[in-house]
Amino acid sequence: MKTLTLNPIAKVAGEVHLPGSKSISNRVLLLAALAKGTTHITNLLDSDDIKHMLNALTALGIGYKLSDCRTRCDVHGIGGLFNHPQALTMFLGNAGTAMRPLTAALAASNVDVTLTGEPRMYERPIGHLVDALRQWQADIRYTGSEDFPPLHIKGKALQGGSMQIDGSISSQFLTAVLMVAPLLAGDSEIDITGELVSKPYIDITLALMQRFGVTVQNHNYKRFSIKGNQLYRSPGQWLVEGDASSASYFLAAAAIKGGSIKVTGIGKHAVQGDIHFADALEAMGAEVEWGDDYIMVTRNTLNGIDRDYNAIPDAAMTIATTALFAKGPTVIRNVYNWRVKETDRLAAMATELRKVGAEVEEGHDYLKVTPPATLKHASIATYNDHRMAMCFSLVALSDTSVTIEDPDCTAKTFPHYFSLFQQLAC
Ligand SMILES: O=C(O)C1=C[C@@H](OP(=O)(O)O)[C@@H](O)[C@H](O)C1
Ligand SMILES: C=C(OP(=O)(O)O)C(=O)O
């Protein structure tokens, strides 16, 4: 297995222009495909998750042209749902932002599709989404285990109507039904059961739908009302914001070992909830400066904090390794759904943090990290989880080196992460 050893880094400083947001890239690609007109997307993320969405669009006959090292994409929308009656099989890797929204869009299209993925995708539950779509009479069948992909979808015109959807495991299920609802014949009322998790991702969905000309009524994240029989219209140009989750590693590095680091491509008006990772760093003691198109963090002494991170589950992982450099314990609360992402992130994080010397309490939905006096070298297993690999790069900001196993797993969202990270060393 390939490994990467990062030697101790004495100081970091500099500027990073962020690759495009994964969440926005895959939403915009899908909305652009369904919209009337051509959408000219710039700063598109070039990573595995996005390739899976693009391959799906190709298979469905959507015309698009990639340029500028795949960061520019001109998508020719079809002004409605997909129409590809010949049977297809689509491999979607482990991309939740492809699997979930495509399931809903395809269930309402004239298609006959089997959605497959990596082995881990078959352990990530999708039952709440399928149960919800079946209330709209969708024809979806599990071809492996009940409640998990792979799925066989025999798409057909759906009327919409009232639906109850469980929001307690993933917000991506709600995102999926919201995006397809305006294209159905009738109006829809979507009621959320369970406490909706990861709410800011719903804000991203609603903001993007709005830019494509569709308004959703959000009744306090409990009920959503959407008029049917609408059309998405291309907004023309679209610049994808930098990825706020990817920004977290650089901002944390500055807080731990700056100098200052400035990330550009996101700023105080960004639509991604993960920008609030910077607020958590500030609460730990870092200095944060916000611009229209940048966030800059400067080092200060860090203290452990105890917080609810349900709104920012991805960036919260970065807090877990930043905690190694704080004074006192750090508690990361209300992140049960870490267990159903790329790996069981609560278990994986606890195991690997202990290897570098931390004392860790792993709860059902929380992690308490007490840093050691000095960190130990370890070879970090990454569980095919890009965020495990990126989070543990921060250990090199101590007096010890760290070995990252399978560093190429960052290809899911950030193929060039390690070269950018190492360039900040000074
Ligand atoms: O909608 C999105 O773009 C995402 C929502 C979140 O998932 P959950 O809603 O499952 O927490 C997040 O973890 C994921 O990386 C991207
Ligand atoms: C949970 C993640 O991915 P996905 O979009 O596949 O859910 C993630 O990127 O941390």
From TrEMBL:
<dbReference type="GO" id="GO:0005737">
    <property type="term" value="C:cytoplasm"/>
</dbReference>
<comment type="similarity">
    <text>Belongs to the EPSP synthase family.</text>
</comment>
<feature type="binding site">
    <location>
        <position position="124"/>
    </location>
    <ligand>
        <name>phosphoenolpyruvate</name>
    </ligand>
</feature>
<feature type="binding site">
    <location>
        <position position="337"/>
    </location>
    <ligand>
        <name>3-phosphoshikimate</name>
    </ligand>
</feature>
<feature type="binding site">
    <location>
        <position position="341"/>
    </location>
    <ligand>
        <name>3-phosphoshikimate</name>
    </ligand>
</feature>
<feature type="binding site">
    <location>
        <position position="27"/>
    </location>
    <ligand>
        <name>3-phosphoshikimate</name>
    </ligand>
</feature>
<dbReference type="InterPro" id="IPR006264">
    <property type="entry name" value="EPSP_synthase"/>
</dbReference>
<keyword id="KW-0963">Cytoplasm</keyword>
<dbReference type="InterPro" id="IPR023193">
    <property type="entry name" value="EPSP_synthase_CS"/>
</dbReference>
<feature type="binding site">
    <location>
        <position position="22"/>
    </location>
    <ligand>
        <name>3-phosphoshikimate</name>
    </ligand>
</feature>
<keyword id="KW-0028">Amino-acid biosynthesis</keyword>
<dbReference type="GO" id="GO:0009423">
    <property type="term" value="P:chorismate biosynthetic process"/>
</dbReference>
<feature type="binding site">
    <location>
        <position position="314"/>
    </location>
    <ligand>
        <name>3-phosphoshikimate</name>
    </ligand>
</feature>
<feature type="binding site">
    <location>
        <position position="22"/>
    </location>
    <ligand>
        <name>phosphoenolpyruvate</name>
    </ligand>
</feature>
<dbReference type="InterPro" id="IPR001986">
    <property type="entry name" value="Enolpyruvate_Tfrase_dom"/>
</dbReference>
<feature type="binding site">
    <location>
        <position position="345"/>
    </location>
    <ligand>
        <name>phosphoenolpyruvate</name>
    </ligand>
</feature>
<dbReference type="InterPro" id="IPR036968">
    <property type="entry name" value="Enolpyruvate_Tfrase_sf"/>
</dbReference>
<feature type="domain" description="Enolpyruvate transferase">
    <location>
        <begin position="7"/>
        <end position="419"/>
    </location>
</feature>
<protein>
    <recommendedName>
        <fullName>3-phosphoshikimate 1-carboxyvinyltransferase</fullName>
        <ecNumber>2.5.1.19</ecNumber>
    </recommendedName>
</protein>
<feature type="binding site">
    <location>
        <position position="412"/>
    </location>
    <ligand>
        <name>phosphoenolpyruvate</name>
    </ligand>
</feature>
<dbReference type="GO" id="GO:0009073">
    <property type="term" value="P:aromatic amino acid family biosynthetic process"/>
</dbReference>
<comment type="pathway">
    <text>Metabolic intermediate biosynthesis; chorismate biosynthesis; chorismate from D-erythrose 4-phosphate and phosphoenolpyruvate: step 6/7.</text>
</comment>
<feature type="binding site">
    <location>
        <position position="23"/>
    </location>
    <ligand>
        <name>3-phosphoshikimate</name>
    </ligand>
</feature>
<feature type="binding site">
    <location>
        <position position="172"/>
    </location>
    <ligand>
        <name>phosphoenolpyruvate</name>
    </ligand>
</feature>
<keyword id="KW-0808">Transferase</keyword>
<comment type="subunit">
    <text>Monomer.</text>
</comment>
<feature type="active site" description="Proton acceptor">
    <location>
        <position position="314"/>
    </location>
</feature>
<comment type="function">
    <text>Catalyzes the transfer of the enolpyruvyl moiety of phosphoenolpyruvate (PEP) to the 5-hydroxyl of shikimate-3-phosphate (S3P) to produce enolpyruvyl shikimate-3-phosphate and inorganic phosphate.</text>
</comment>
<feature type="binding site">
    <location>
        <position position="387"/>
    </location>
    <ligand>
        <name>phosphoenolpyruvate</name>
    </ligand>
</feature>
<feature type="binding site">
    <location>
        <position position="198"/>
    </location>
    <ligand>
        <name>3-phosphoshikimate</name>
    </ligand>
</feature>
<dbReference type="GO" id="GO:0008652">
    <property type="term" value="P:amino acid biosynthetic process"/>
</dbReference>
<dbReference type="InterPro" id="IPR013792">
    <property type="entry name" value="RNA3'P_cycl/enolpyr_Trfase_a/b"/>
</dbReference>
<feature type="binding site">
    <location>
        <position position="172"/>
    </location>
    <ligand>
        <name>3-phosphoshikimate</name>
    </ligand>
</feature>
<feature type="binding site">
    <location>
        <position position="96"/>
    </location>
    <ligand>
        <name>phosphoenolpyruvate</name>
    </ligand>
</feature>
<feature type="binding site">
    <location>
        <position position="171"/>
    </location>
    <ligand>
        <name>3-phosphoshikimate</name>
    </ligand>
</feature>
<feature type="binding site">
    <location>
        <position position="170"/>
    </location>
    <ligand>
        <name>3-phosphoshikimate</name>
    </ligand>
</feature>
<dbReference type="Pfam" id="PF00275">
    <property type="entry name" value="EPSP_synthase"/>
</dbReference>
<keyword id="KW-0057">Aromatic amino acid biosynthesis</keyword>
<dbReference type="GO" id="GO:0003866">
    <property type="term" value="F:3-phosphoshikimate 1-carboxyvinyltransferase activity"/>
</dbReference>
